[in-house]
Design brief:
heterodimer; A: 228 residues; mainly alpha; Four Helix Bundle (Hemerythrin (Met), subunit A); globular; B: 213 residues; 9 helices
């Protein structure tokens, strides 16, 4: 467990994320062709990778929670918390970019027939309550257990909610919009993959950065207690 | 196995006996659900469809369950009953199962009043709605009991439970409303059964970690 910023992976990951993000932006605007939806389709290259990264964050958080409960791995609870914290940030960005896309494409800021967007709203509410739970319990083994169990409930909720929202669309709304309209060309798919890699690298860099900060914090507190 | 079930029966009987003596929870749930239905009558504008009323029935059920769940672990925390339960030589998941069953009992009593009251105030209720309510009750109690045990560990308690519970209850509401209003309720009932099975298993497996340190 390294606490120093110098001898861990943060600078490397941050550099990788910056390079990939620059490449992603360049590819999106100068390489990928403008398709029949026009320029607003470009948000696809950010919205979808951000959404997939948010899923990855939630999955990673639940995996760390499972490791905490199952193996009692020290520090796994903190890692789970950091992953979910970033997941909520990426989730909020998904909601914002999705909302902008819906406004530009269909003229409404919010559409209940957009299944992924509704799913993200449910997940956003669920994981926001995670913070309420975590910060209302005293730090200690019980808080770690509760947070881990809640994180695992979250990954189970994702497919269940997705199924429920798909069912709901059949009685609330007809399915009016199909995003798979235009087939993705090879160049578009390549751009998409680079954007996804960039977002995942950004997540990895932020994850390690926040984790290093939190560990430094904990170490400082220990030293202060030793001094007093 | 029979040992496990007898543990569950003893623990559930303890909750029912406490309720029979103190009468804290069930009367409150009954009054709340009837009051909520009256409020909903005035909340719906004149000439609203029966479908809207059916949707509100589900709101009433979820919030009534929430009221019961908020009370579920109060004695365990306030009187430190939970320490005694954890010392008892029984599986920790038996505590979850017993508590879920007693909450389920309270909720069913509340619904035995709520559903006829709904039929009286709004519109008739068909078999699919009753089946949907029964299946939803299982899921609500299974998930709600774990979350109630989580919520009492925190400082916020009563404030925390609705925040934890409502996002998890959204699929139940979707399945339940679908079962009451759709022409073919079978797939919604199937979804509710799936929800019950999935969340009962992970609640059963994870409850031990919620109550122990």
């Amino acid at each position: 467990m390294s606490t120093s910023l110098r001898n861990n992976r943060v600078p490397l990951l941050a550099g990788l994320a910056a390079a990939l993000l620059c490449a992603a932006i360049a590819l999106t605007f100068f390489y990928a062709p403008v398709d029949e939806d026009g320029l607003n389709q470009k948000i696809f290259y950010f919205h979808v990778p951000i959404a997939l990264t948010a899923y990855a964050c939630f999955g990673w958080g639940a995996w760390k929670g499972l490791l905490h409960l199952w193996k009692g791995k020290p520090g796994a609870d903190l890692e789970s918390y950091v992953a979910i914290h970033l997941g909520v940030i990426f989730g909020a960005m998904t909601l914002i970019t999705g909302s902008i896309w819906a406004k530009v494409s269909w003229g409404h800021w919010w559409l209940w027939s957009e299944k992924q967007l509704v799913l993200f709203l449910v997940l956003f509410l669920f994981y926001s309550a995670y913070f309420m739970l975590r910060f209302s319990v005293e730090p200690g083994p019980q808080r770690a257990n509760l947070s881990s169990v809640y994180a695992i409930f979250g990954v189970v909720l994702i497919p269940v909610s997705f199924l429920a929202i798909r069912l709901a669309n059949q009685y609330i709304h007809p399915i009016a919009f199909n995003r798979n309209g235009p087939q993705m060309a090879g160049s578009q798919f390549f751009t998409f993959c680079v954007c996804l890699a960039a977002m995942l690298a950004l997540f990895a860099a932020l994850y390690n950065f926040e984790l290093a900060g939190k560990r430094l914090d904990a170490r400082l507190r220990e030293l202060r207690e030793l001094l007093t | 196995m029979s040992r496990y079930l007898s543990d569950v029966a003893v623990l559930a009987r303890k909750d029912l006996r406490l309720e029979l003596r103190a009468r804290n929870t069930v009367p409150a749930m009954l009054l709340f659900v009837v009051a909520a239905l009256v409020v909903f009558h005035f909340a719906l504008p004149e000439g609203s469809s029966d479908l809207a009323a059916k949707g509100l029935l589900w709101v009433a059920i979820v919030f009534t369950a929430l009221l019961g769940l908020t009370r579920a672990f109060v004695a365990e925390r306030e009187q430190r009953l939970i320490d005694g339960l954890l010392l008892a030589p029984c599986d920790r998941s038996a505590i979850w199962l017993a508590k879920s069953l007693s909450v389920l009992g309270f909720l069913v009593v509340a619904e035995l009043v709520a559903l006829p009251a709904f039929a009286l105030f709004f519109s008739g209720i068909d078999g699919a709605t009753v089946a949907g309510v029964a299946l939803a009750d299982l899921g609500i109690c299974a998930v709600g009991t774990v979350l109630a045990a989580m919520a009492v560990a925190g400082r916020a308690r009563e404030l925390l439970l609705p925040l934890l519970f409502l996002p998890l209850a959204i699929p139940i509401v979707i399945g339940g409303v679908g079962a009451s209003v759709a022409a073919e309720p079978a797939r919604y009932l199937g979804f509710l059964a799936l929800y019950d099975a999935v969340f009962a298993i992970i609640s059963w497996a994870s409850f031990e970690y919620v109550v122990t340190e």
